[in-house]
Batch of 2 targets.
Target 1
Amino acid sequence: MLSEDEIQKLATLARLEIDPSFKPVVTSHVNSIIGYVARLNEVDTSGVEALSHVQGATNVLREDIVQPVGSPPDALPLGESAVAPQGMLAGEALLENVPDHSGRFIRVPIIVE
Amino acid sequence: MSDLPSLSVAEIRAGLDSRKFSAVELAQACLAKADKLRSLNCFTELTPEHALKEAAAADALLAGGKSAPLLGVPLGIKDVICTKGVRTTAGSKMLANFIPPYDATVVRRLKTAGAISIGKLNMDEFAMGSSNENSAFGPARNPWNPEYVPGGSSGGSAAAVAARICPLSLGTDTGGSIRQPAAFCGIVGLKPTYGRVSRYGVIAYASSLDQVGGFAHNVRDCALVTQAICGEDPNDATSSPRPVPSFEKALSRGVKGLRIGIPKEYFVAGLSPEVSEATQKAISVLQDLGATTVEISLPHTDAAVSVYYILAPAEASSNLARYDGIRYGHRAEGQLDLKTLYSKSRSEGFGKEVQRRILVGTYVLSAGYFDAFYVKAQRVRSLILKDFTDAFSGSCDVIVAPTTPTPPFRIGEKASDPLQMYLNDIFTIPVNLAGLPGMVVPCGATASGLPIGLQLIGKHWDEESLFATAAAYEQATEWHKRTPSMAG
């Protein structure tokens, strides 16, 4: 059984701030989930390989080609470029979603005291 | 004129090609119906401007004598799939203002096919849920009875198609998120084989399980939308270079001589009598059509939910680490030090179920528990895959089973007990763990009229047998013709 303190430790590791009113509830939920999934101990897996990818994926390599920078062109109806290389996204397009930036720089809190 | 949004894709095709109505008129009709049925909360956003512009482009092509299966056909897109210039929230406050600068490959493929997106569909936050109650934008509702859940996580996608707002939609399925809502809403849905469809631009939940698929009113329409999104993508290394067969051709194949496996572990205590009866009846329909049935065993079925609730939260805790309030997504206000900025942004942005799964994922990946939980689950995943490959290599071509242990449940009924909610996915989860294709077709109704769906499970890469079986079943039955009264 995980205590509220242990849940707090996990939350710190996961960079979450658990609302104090939610902490007892989430502790009980996480314990019931962990208790349930721990039933796997009863399954005999001696000699069984761990499966991380169901199709046995391998590395997929491609030529290292410089792609043009620019917003990907819009797909056109009945065009033929559904999966053609879309080019790299321009920095400006990406910056539009940055919560706080100055010019081309993302503003962050002081990280060195 | 009949209700345009209720038309099948074949009827739309005929109407557009013969100029009985235009793509713009059709898109307007779908948007108007979405507006009329706003109380279902299917959409996180309607996009009339984009839709009407794309519809006008389709009309111009039609006027020039062009045609294609999906040209001018309206649809909706689950809000976990990135759409260029259109807000994509994943059902989360974290991404409430996120406007992707690019289209997911599936969206590009649909645009290239000439389909018209009318908007983004409501969902459980980051695709974590089985009821749509975990959406930061409120639950979508089941059009058969708005007091009931439409299923999840692709609840909005299923509800919009069931309510005849649009003929098609896209969803994603990580543990049943297409099949369960298709069953709960009485429509057709297909999760393709893992690797069949690109995940590029699909906001990640559990990457080794996530797959995009389509919802439709009928099997043929589902084949058309599936066809449009399948195929290799250089932007997703897990997408397969295998050629994609014609799914439409498979529709007329029939089931004569098909060997159908009935997994005994899926007909156990806890299965609702109404679901069990509807499934048994559907099996006898398939027998009457010439299929043979054989009882099979998938001995590790009972372990699947445990495996899933270790692996999926583990992958999610890693995938969701990117939301730190710095580059995109919600950032907490105020003069905060870096760590507090991270934790405040994440706690304000993520809902309770997402936080719960991140905690579970962090626990099973932490030193000391990694082998006991994560690696153990990966090993049992091997056994679950082997259950299926054994069944398919020996005795059957397709597996037929219930989709869910119960019919749709009421909004709020399971909301306070996450484990009870998780157990609702007991029959859909094994398919994701094994990477197989799975399909749902309507096969019955409860005494109160709520839909029941039949699940078909195929071999890897064999969506064709699912389409063939589903089409034969549909032709022999009337369930797909039932529509909720509010669909008009």
Target 2
Amino acid sequence: MTSRLTGVAPLIQRDKVHASLYTDQAIFAEELQKIWYRTWVFVGHESEVSQPGDYVRKRLGLQDVIMTRDRDGEIHLLLNRCAHRGNQVCDDAKGNSATFRCPLHGWTFRNTGELIGFPFYKGYGTRKLDLAMGRVARVDSYHGFVFGSFAEEGPSLLDHLGAAAGEIDRLVRLSPENRVELTAGWLGHETHSNWKLLAENETDGYHPQFVHGSIFGVTGSTIGPLYSDASTAVTRDLGNGHSENDLRPEFRKFAEPMRWFGTTEQRVPDYVAAMRALHGDAAEQILIEGAPHVMIFPNLFIAEIQVFNIQPVAFNQCTQYSTAVQLVGAPELNKRMVSQCVGSVGPAGMLLADDTEMYERNQLGLEARQPEWLQIRRGLQRETTDENGFIIGGATDETGMRGFWSHYASLMEAQ
Amino acid sequence: MTSTIDASDELTAVPDGFDIRDVEQFLFREARFADESDYDSWEALWTDDALYWVPAGNDSVDPLATMSVVYDNRNRISTRLKQLRTGRRYAQAPPSNLRRLISNVELVGGRAVAGNGVDLEVGANFLVVESRARGNRLWGGRVTYRLRWVDGALRLSYKKVVLVDKDKPLPTLGFLI
């Protein structure tokens, strides 16, 4: 076993990574500090707190976070802890309230985290105390996707998203009103594996034909060939640990509007008409190319019509939260999106339950003492650079994983 | 395909023609088929307009606009079972070892279904012990069934399973609950 005194750098090589990255509790503790409590982490969507006073409980790393919208419409991420003795101040999963009152001694906080009162003030000799609920230091959003960073200073959200912002744009432009909501509620899926196995798998185009062969076979799905050796799709390292399976080359080959959604334009005529009215000639390309399949470091996965929020629990456990994308102005699509998503994801999902089975068996497999390394070399010899300077590999290559690990190493090596 | 989601919102009196002993025997049989992963026998219990629903969180929301753990119409029940039968539905290959108890059976009322008369609505509690290689798990909750006589045999048109753990992240649910 490589000594921890040397940091993680020796554990991460261009073509392989060391199993201890998934099994070492000390590395997990370090990830919390250097990744989850430092970089931008996806938390939720503004549409979950659409009205002033709305709040919803979320996770950020191991932290219990309350996402609130104040009376001015601003979003806050508060830590669920009273400034007095640390009791939890919020026990409902969601609701609407301008204030949170701690049940232990009645201290009351505004939904911005500010302390506004405490009983029997004479005991403190003052009516004002310079105390507040803890807050996630920086909160920002992109097209309503809310991210938090515990670092007071650092790269902006836009800097962090980099090229991945364009993938969110690509999702949002599928709405005739250029707006996406995540209002269908989240399925929580308890997963007994290290979170990084999920992050790596999300743009692994090598596994679908094997892990999902059972459902592709019985439904006659057209997804399988997208991830075959013959596919023209590419895996792209978008930088900053983000990666995508860019399926557009395959959809352009067929040039059929809505094929990406497994349907035809005749089945969703109002939607297609609305898009053509809005975009004119440009609508065809949008309707043919469809939605992105992008993993945004460290925990936001947009898989065409569904969104995943991955949060760590322990070195060998994490939670996957998943929901259906809802395109504002596209009622014809939204019910289908919920229906398809319910069939696919979550604890009983016909796709994700099998992925999760693999994550969990993989975690146990990694406890084997030998061999110590996992291979991430697939496609290394055939990688190229696209016209925008991004590294791309074939549809089934491990280009995304290598991008993930490169960024992971840079965060873990930073002081 | 019409579905029992089109059933009346109104619960009426318990319809005639159902005996509690027959009903219980049917529920126990359904439970045994599910426990023993006897997919063919289990599938044969359903009507053509079936609905098999496991809500997530609040179960009084619109299931067409809200995520559920399972929301299968008859077609999707069939797909789910076909996937299980491949033997490569890894979340259930190998299948879980299962045994469940059904209790507190109540005849709750009647549910009018367009063109299909009135289904009997039955409530019951359940507890399942699931044993898998990576550990054991207890699943408990409340089931609402709707039953109908079809060609002299009881059939299941609706099964809604509200888990006591519905407000928390759930582990993989690969078996028929």
